[in-house]
Amino acid sequence: MKLILAEKPSVAKNIADALGIKGKKDGYFEGNQYIITWAFGHLLELFDAKDYDSKMARWKLDNFPFIPDKFEYKVKSNPRNRQWADQGAKKQLSVIHTLMKRADVDSIISACDFDREGQLIGDSIIYRAKPKKPIYRLLLNEWTKDEVIRGLNLMKPNEELRPLQDAGVSRQWADWVIGINLTSVATLKYQKGKGKALNIGRVLLPTLKIIYDRDKEIENFLPEEYFKLDVIFSTVKNETYEGTYKEDSEEKFKQKEMLDQINSLIQDRQALVIDKKVEKKKEFPPFLFNLSNLQGFITSKYKGWTSDKVLKVAQSLYEKKFITYPRTSSTALEETLVGKTANVLKTLTDDLPYRDEIKFMKTKRVFNNAKVESHSAIIPTYVKPKRLSADEQIVYTAIKNRFIMQFMPVAEYEETKLTTKITDVDLKGNFESKGKVQLVEGWKKVENITSKDKLLPIVEQNEVVTVAETEVTTHVTKPPKPHTEKTLLRVMETCGKGYKGDDDEEEEGSILTGFSIGTPATRAETIKKLKDVGYITAQGKNLISTDLGKRLVETFPVKALFDLEFTGRLEKTLSDIQKGIVKKNLFLQTIYQFTTESVETIKADQEVIINEVTGSAKSTNEVLGRCPNCGGNIIEGRKGFGCSNWKKGCKFVIWKNDKYLAALKKKPTKTMVKALLKDKKAFVKGLTSKQGKKFNAYLSYEKNPNNDYYSWTMEFEKTKASL
């Protein structure tokens, strides 16, 4: 009898289904040849500092740095009361260890996720019982029946995965040492009042710094005015096209007077098309999704999505056997998957209207071992879902469409460039025009992607045209855009190297070998945690640093933790441990030394308060919007939603015990305040009239014209009454 340990109950059920096992017991399935049991993710966690030494129960600067001689594990704590073990985890751990000791069990198979986290989960549970039976590793990229059976015939001795375990342990221990020590010392040093700790983390701080730097760029940006001269030319057939004046390849000019002078000289003049270049170009589909690109695509396209939500939905689709392993950094497939991919493509495209255009081909864009690290890109499996939730449908459709695009014809377009010269006027420059014509729609049919490019009329070289209209236009340079989850994920994935812009997925010529901030599995969690601890906030799709986040970046003295290069090197080292290139102990010694030096740096630093916790208010530092009075940040306080510039005299506030709202049996909420600040009104449900009847209305909070105070206005669709 073989015992299989899965990471979650749903995965255990997939394995049982694949093997035709229906006998369900308390905590496991049992068949003729296999017993299948499961964890709930991590059943074990590292000791808290106080578990090693009772003096660590009290936070005192003298107790740090604290680095255990040997790391110990315990049953994970009850999330509601960390003093006690989670009883469900304790029971399931007992079930697993009892099954391991059964006399008829001759070998143990770890079937946890094929990544360093999954390896750590399986190994920590199995080796805790010190088994004397052979241990094997089931390595799968999907949980379909065919793949489970194939994987069981290709298992590896678990010892061969030791580098993967070392990488998992190194990451876990390093984050514990840095987090426990620096969070504790920073909170004691820089926080006034009791409340949430001042969270310090190896991945958290450099991610905050990326957002902070962009905020500073925007804040320090000085707009510059520039001018352009645009002309509409008319052909002999009375067709028109637009041209922009260019001089020495420059079309943006700081001197308006020069363009005004040219403008006056060219009125109603004739012009000659002196050059026409027509070029046929190919447009390839974007690469297959890795996790970061999938998260970026969904969060930028659909309102209300976060990268954390995308990961959870993708994980659900994976566990239901509909897609391959989602926590991947690869944008191509292993070359051994050619046959399987052809089968998946046929299964998914039989009923598509453009199926005759779909042609399976083995190309380097899709099948390329050099672009695969650990796991191939995310694609659908041959299992077609019969029913999906609305969220699952969004993520599954994106993955399926991106997959199908790879086997559609390459899109082709014709790009035309015209150079038009004004005759009888001596100008240094000429007018340039560009236009595109889509010749082959190809892969763009899959998502009905249409081109927004200008079309030019048919104009030939040496054709004479006439200046019909002219305009000198005024423009202002724009600041950089705030980061979104999509752009932030790209910077984290590349450590900022070679990052070009919002929509640049095509830069990935080959997979980055581990030089990044975090991993595909942890980046979404990092962004969520930054919001939860109050270092950043979301305004629509934009991510901005809060006042607390800014103070932390500007004040915290361990600058290496904000450095993308430093963090990237640590992540690269973890990747090298996973490959067996670097030894675990070497990495950990570096972490211990860094932590010890950082603790001493904080202790010796100047006395300064980064975070002040006042009263019993839940201080999240979340920016709810811009103050309509002075442009400052509106944040939640203990008694109301007010402006952060109140010390400078700004009086804008929405009190939590507002008398007008109280009369309507309502209290202001964060959602209401956000809507008021963004849209100048909020739709509020469940208001109560004086007669006790419930009704809905739009509320506005408007400044009185005669003084500095604000009062409420109510609007019923088209009827508005001032209150």
Write a short abstract of this structure.
With 723 residues, the chain is of the alpha+beta class. It has 19 helices and 30 strands. The strands form eight sheets. Strands 2-3-4-1-9-10-11 form a seven-stranded mixed sheet. The protein has a six-stranded antiparallel barrel with strand order 13-14-17-16-15-18.
Overall SS class: alpha+beta
Largest sheet entry:
7 strands, mixed
Provide a count of the helices. 19
What fraction strand? 15-25%
Low-confidence parts, pLDDT < 50 over ≥5 residues? 499-504, 506-513, 718-723
Give the second-level CATH assignment, the architecture of the largest domain. Answer: Orthogonal Bundle
Mean pLDDT: 92
- How many whole angstroms does the radius of gyration measure? 31 Å
* Record field, number of beta strands: 30
Span from first to last CA? 77 Å
Q: Could you please describe the fold and organization of this structure?
A:
- The structure is a single chain.
- With 723 residues, this protein is α+β, with helices and mostly antiparallel strands.
- It folds into five domains: 2-154, Rossmann fold (3-Layer(aba) Sandwich), CATH 3.40.50.140; 170-220 and 481-611, Orthogonal Bundle (Topoisomerase I, domain 2), CATH 1.10.460.10; 225-284 and 411-476, Topoisomerase I, domain 3; 291-405, Topoisomerase I, domain 4 (Orthogonal Bundle), CATH 1.10.290; 625-722, no CATH class.
- Helices cover 33% and strands 22% of the residues.
- It contains 19 helices and 30 strands.
- Helix 10 (307-319) packs across helix 14 (523-532).
- The longest helix is centred in the first third of the chain and has 29 residues, at 162-190.
- The protein is globular.
- The protein starts with a strand and ends with a strand.
